[in-house]
Design a protein that fits this description.
The protein has about 400 residues and is of the alpha+beta class. The N and C termini lie far apart (about 75 Å). Helix 4 packs across helix 6 and helix 6 runs antiparallel to helix 7.
């Protein structure tokens, strides 16, 4: 055999080997893609334009339509001909009708008798944004560098449909600064809800799910939400238990409160299981009420982040595979992969956390028997632009 023939034979062998290697890589890539796609499909999906969760229709309208706000007046469900209220919350009541005969909905969640109101709802004045064309362009430029994902903790227990949003945190991924900020919204913030009476911000989720809550945040706080992730109480507890619990530092007044209910905590760090972590995250009757409550929720989030940030990809993927069935989202698989890739590429070592409204940017009032926090919306918008966009 000539040297030329030998060289050809070697080249053919190399080509065959290269093709074999490429084929193996394609098979591995395909298998990996299939595994990833299967994991992504474990997360619960919701179409934000339709009714969420199970098709529950057992909420009957027993109301007389008076303005008393008594709990016997239960609102209509998804078969309402007006097509506005499409939720499942049991304690939605009709407190009257507008000039067109359409029902006016409210939540039956008053804290005190309405006779104790400090201000009428119609006397709350709102300062909504009006942007010039130049300001709109500047906003669009800023927002192109940031992804805002709303993390929703739902006040839903077994057997219930959609409830109020017990926790709302905006996770903002800044692609340019390579940071992630977590900003809580106080659940008792009294805001405008498109198509409904002004109410606590958490009522928006009970009325219309992710879509209406996103619209409410945009109207009042000027922030565009790109995607949503929701977890209910059972999901939260299961995730914390799967992680083996969390170590949380408790203050003396928190310890006194919990121990009065039969626990045996100490001042300083305590190891909390899922039930205890949920209790901690929902505590609002000690300290500064909802202000400290949202801080406790952010403490849980940052604690979990610090536990996982240095884990290897295989371990993280295994945990994600277990966590996804407890979550509900309006994101597509492609969205999830894109956002996850963004975060993994940042090599994050810490989360920056905030709350809205900040101190000095709200006042306490009682409206329709509800003890609420009335935010200074222009101040809240300025704070959020600074926190999220750096502007």
């Amino acid at each position: 055999m000539s040297k030329k023939d030998k060289d050809k034979k070697k080249m053919a062998a190399w080509k065959k080997a290269l093709i074999t290697i490429l084929a193996l890589l394609l098979v591995l890539a395909g298998s990996l893609f299939a595994v990833v796609w299967t994991t992504l499909n474990k997360i619960n999906r919701v179409n934000p334009d339709t009714i969420e969760y199970e098709s529950r229709t057992d909420i009957n309208n027993n109301g007389s339509g008076d303005n008393s706000g008594n709990s016997g007046n239960s609102g209509n469900s998804s078969d309402d001909s007006d097509g506005e209220y499409n939720g499942y919350f049991e304690d939605i009541i009709i407190i009257g009708y507008d000039e067109n005969g359409k029902p006016i909905y409210d939540l039956n969640d008053a804290d005190v008798d309405p006779s104790e109101d400090t201000i009428k709802s119609e006397d709350v004045e709102w300062e909504n944004e009006e942007l010039s064309e130049e300001e709109e362009k500047q906003r669009e430029k800023e927002e192109s560098n940031v992804v805002n994902i709303l993390l929703i903790g739902q006040d839903r227990r077994p057997g219930q449909g959609r409830q109020r949003s017990d926790s709302m945190m905006i996770a903002s991924i800044n692609k340019s600064a390579k940071t992630v900020t977590i900003t809580s919204i106080l659940r008792d913030s009294y805001v405008q809800i498109p198509g409904y009476l002004d109410n606590r911000v958490n009522a928006a989720y009970a009325y219309g799910g992710m879509k209406l809550l996103d619209e409410t945040i945009r109207l009042n706080f000027g922030i565009e939400i790109d995607a949503n992730i929701e977890v209910d109480f059972d999901g939260f507890k299961a995730i914390i238990n799967r992680l083996g619990g969390v170590d949380i530092a408790l203050k003396d007044y928190e310890v006194n409160y919990y121990n009065s209910k039969g626990h045996n905590f100490v001042v300083g760090y305590n190891h909390l299981n899922g039930d205890q972590a949920l209790m901690y995250a929902r505590t609002r009757y000690v300290g500064r009420h909802d202000i400290e409550r949202t801080q406790r929720q952010r403490t849980i989030v940052t604690t979990v982040f610090n536990m996982l940030k240095d884990e290897d990809p295989v371990t993280l993927f295994g945990l994600i595979n277990e966590f996804f069935p407890y979550l509900t989202t309006d994101m597509s698989n492609s969205d999830i992969i894109y956002y996850a890739t963004l975060i993994m590429g940042m090599n994050l070592q810490e989360l920056q956390t905030y709350r809205i409204p900040a101190d000095g940017c709200f006042r306490y009032e009682t409206i329709r028997g509800k003890k609420v926090t009335v935010p200074d919306l222009p101040a809240c918008r300025r704070d959020l632009r600074r926190i999220i966009y750096g502007s």
